[in-house]
Amino acid sequence: MSMNLQKLSVCLILMLALAGLVLVSCGQDEKPAPAATGPVVDSVASADGVMIQYEVRGEGEPMLVFVHGWSCDMSYWKNQVDVFDDANRVVTVDLGGHGGSGTGREDWTMPAFGADVAAVVNKLGPDRVVLIGHSMAGAVNMEAAKLLDGKVIGLVGVDTYHEFGTGESPELMAEFVGPFRTDFAAAMDGFVRGMFVESSDTALVNWVAADMSAAPPEVAVSALENYFNCNALEALKKTVVPIVAINADLWPTDLEANQASAASFELKLMPGVGHFVMQENPAEFNRLLRETVDKLTGESGAAVDNE
Q1: Residues 84/89/92/93 CA torsion (nearest 10 deg)
Q2: Beta carbons of 64 and 89 less than 8 angstroms apart
Q3: Mean pLDDT across the chain, nearest whole number?
Q4: Is 247 helix (H, G, I), strand (E, B) or coil?
Q5: Which of 18, 130, 202, 247 has its CA 20 to 30 A from that of 272?
């Protein structure tokens, strides 16, 4: 092949390649491939400067904020985040002293934890929020709602809000907290196992017991004492949004008294499971939570797909 023919061949090949690139580019403009979306992890300073880690997925309002319970972290909502982010922006939070969030407080109170949640919500700037809290986070979210200037359209308690009271006596608190001061890991292990039922999955029980037993004792004991001291009846005076409890039947919920105390209180029971209802029967919990969110918004949300 002559030199001129070789040059011509090379030019033709380059022209064809460029044309192919143009066609591919045009095709992508017409039909863009869906972008892969994953969780975004970020942090924000709480009111006292403690850094609070949170994770965001999905889009849509109301924004659903999942808050873990005592000595847990955001991973306890692993069976919910991928289900609800199809229709809503889903946020999970590590409260101060838990998970990936910072430490440095002298006193781990419910108002301080509430400020953690409020700091995350305010940074993300939604118009409507549903706060979902497991166990201790029921009290935390009541505190957060006070700080969020009408953004909260409902509180969903997860095996909490069994009875709104004024706090426990110093004698009962000292009796309960004493073992945690003496041998935190052993006391926590026994306490956690008592929150499950006989039919609970053994692997789940062992994982929760080990995880919570590894919590920082100084944070856990302080938070426990402050939780015992909560005056829920006083907090209810500033809580005008609907409250829904998705509770196990392991401990009774005083529905009549709660409805008399709260502006709006509804109970959804999950029989046959222990305290960690969202992990023990995630399909049923997710169904009840979607039903609850739809009712709070007055809209028809996406169907729950638990696959």
Answers
A1: -160
A2: yes
A3: 88
A4: strand
A5: 130
3-state secondary structure of 198: coil
Return the biggest CA–CA distance within the chain: 102
Reduced to 3 states, what is the DSSP secondary structure of residue 153?
strand
Whole-model pTM over 0.90: no
- In the chain, the DSSP E strands lie at 40-45, 51-57, 63-67, 90-93, 129-134, 152-158, 243-248, 265-270
Cis amide linkage into residue 271, ω under 30° from 0: no
User: What's the CA gap between 201 and 1, in Å, rounded?
Assistant: 76
Instruction: Render the burial of 41-79: b for 16+ CB within 10 Å, e for the rest.
Output: eebbebeeebbbbbbbbbebbbbbbbbbbbbbbbebbeb
Residues 79, 81, 84, 90, CA torsion sign: positive
Residue 282 tokens, joined: 């995630």
Q: CA 46, CA 163: separation in Å to the nearest integer? A: 29
pLDDT tens sequence across 167-226: 888 898 899 999 999 999 999 999 999 999 999 999 999 999 999 999 999 999 999 999
Residue 286 vs residue 30, higher pLDDT: 286
Contact 232, 142 (CB under 8 A): yes
Phi, psi of 77 (to 5 degrees): -105, 20
Task: Express each pLDDT in 116-144 by its tens digit.
Answer: 999 999 999 999 999 999 999 999 999 99
User: Which amino acid is present at 305?
Assistant: D
Cα 64–65–67 angle (5° rounding)? 145
Distance between CA atoms of residues 121 and 66, nearest Å: 11
Structure tokens, 164: 């709104």
3-state secondary structure of 263: coil
What is the spatial distance between Cα 196 and Cα 200, in angstroms, rounded to a whole number? 6
Q: How long a stretch of residues is the chain? A: 307
Q: By the 8 A CB rule, do 145 and 131 touch?
A: yes
